[in-house]
């Protein structure tokens, strides 16, 4: 299990794990639960530049369509092909096998994101 307190979060319900200048991004379990059963994931291409707070992908469920927002500006260096091929991973393991993209970023920009306590407060204590 991922240490959720070690992650950073956005108000749009993305989580970010940073290793050096690479940020792994996914949606939180809260977002996955609100979406329902994810059936389709559309992600940016490797090599694409994503801009913080801008839409960079789409997540469709049996209930609705949600947008994936880039939490940071940078270059997409990897996408999770397994989640594209099997979107149910987003629901089953949002913090592990259900990650979505990896982006090369300025690591200092991560400090502006929410910590776990702030994210839990944002969601009304609903994790």
How would you describe this structure to a colleague?
It is a single chain. The relative contact order is 0.26. The chain has 127 residues and is α+β, with helices and mostly antiparallel strands. It has a single domain, classed as Beta Barrel (OB fold (Dihydrolipoamide Acetyltransferase, E2P)), CATH 2.40.50.100. A six-stranded antiparallel sheet has the order 1-2-3-9-8-5. Strands 4-6-7 form a three-stranded antiparallel sheet. The mean pLDDT is 94. The protein is built from four helices and nine strands, in the order βββαβββββααβα. It is globular and about 35 Å long. The longest helix has 7 residues, at 29-35. The two termini are 15 Å apart.
């Amino acid at each position: 299990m991922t240490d959720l307190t070690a992650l950073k979060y956005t108000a749009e319900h993305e989580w970010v794990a940073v290793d050096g200048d690479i940020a792994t991004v996914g949606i939180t379990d809260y977002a996955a639960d609100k979406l329902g059963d994810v059936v389709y994931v559309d992600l940016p291409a490797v090599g694409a530049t994503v801009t913080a707070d801008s839409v960079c992908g789409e997540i469709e469920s049996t209930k609705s369509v949600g947008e994936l927002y880039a939490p940071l500006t940078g270059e997409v260096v990897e996408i999770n092909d397994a989640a594209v091929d099997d979107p149910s991973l987003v629901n089953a393991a949002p913090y592990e096998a259900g990650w979505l993209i990896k982006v090369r970023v300025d690591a200092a920009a991560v400090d502006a994101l929410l910590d776990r306590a702030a994210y839990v407060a944002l969601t009304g204590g609903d994790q």
